[in-house]
Amino acid sequence: MNENRIVLQGTNKRDALGFLLFVFLLPYVCACLWGHVGEETDILDGQAQTGAEDYRVGIMMEWGVWELSIEEYLVYKLESVMPASYEEEALKAQAVLLRTELFQVFREQGGSRLEIEGDGLEKWYYAKGQQEEMEAFCQAVEDTQGVYLCYDGEPIQASYFKVSNGQTRDAGEVWHTEKSPYLSGVPCEQDKSAPDYSSQVVVSKVNYLYEVRARIGEQYDAQDLLDGLRFTYDGAGYVTDVSFCVGEEEVGEIDGETFRYIFGLPSASFRMEQEGAQIVFYVTGVGHGFGMSQYGANSRALNGMDYPEILKEFFPGTELAKFE
What we know:
Radius of gyration: 31 Å
Number of strands: 14
Strand order of the largest sheet: 2-1-3
Oligomer: single chain
Order of helices and strands: HHEEHHEHHEEEHEHHEEEHEEEHHE
Helix content: 40-55%
């Protein structure tokens, strides 16, 4: 009995050691037979948590939130900012900028879901199934799927606008910063042939004086506010500052972009003239002038450039990357 017990005790020790070895070696054996199944699952789970397909955009509507993937949202957004008649490569360049802009927002907020106002996209929710006119936009987004523009590995400030005054603006000169060296002045002579390249905006002197006084003070004489007007232009010909002087003293200043919004000017590239009881603004270009001119991009596409070349020209020093 004792022998049996001793033998049994010996056997229990060996069995315990064997069991421990089995426990420790089991993952290795499984890995050899079936690969690192558990590890791969974890990796795939991680990809699912951070992959492009998991990022969502919620469009806030009257009835609730319309949720879309990034790529779905970009189709509708692209339709809202660029004409379908533009060349395929121009549409692709714009799609990349929109995706870059969106990724930058996601990075800044640190989440994978973004809620935005309807911004004119509601019509497409109710028009689902009747979107033949969206074909060009769908194709541009599909052909650039996941592609965005970066500088030194980071998404850029993806600025774009409709038509330049013949030259895009240099951000370093205007904003006095070196943070966006890729936003530099680029010639766009073709933009001068755009249908909306030049325009006029007429404002009554009464309204003009009202808006100016509301910002710099009611106490100034009307003629002083007209005669003492000074414009400062950047190298591309856009107004950066509007100063008001009485004699030799500057009594107020409005930055160029704010000034143009006050009076509804298409761009800050303008000159102003007094004509009787009216103020007439002669404007060239449409938009802020930084980054990619959409009309200029289309002209380049018509001349045979593909979208990487177009983006490289408007954003020197940048490179394309892909978010999987």
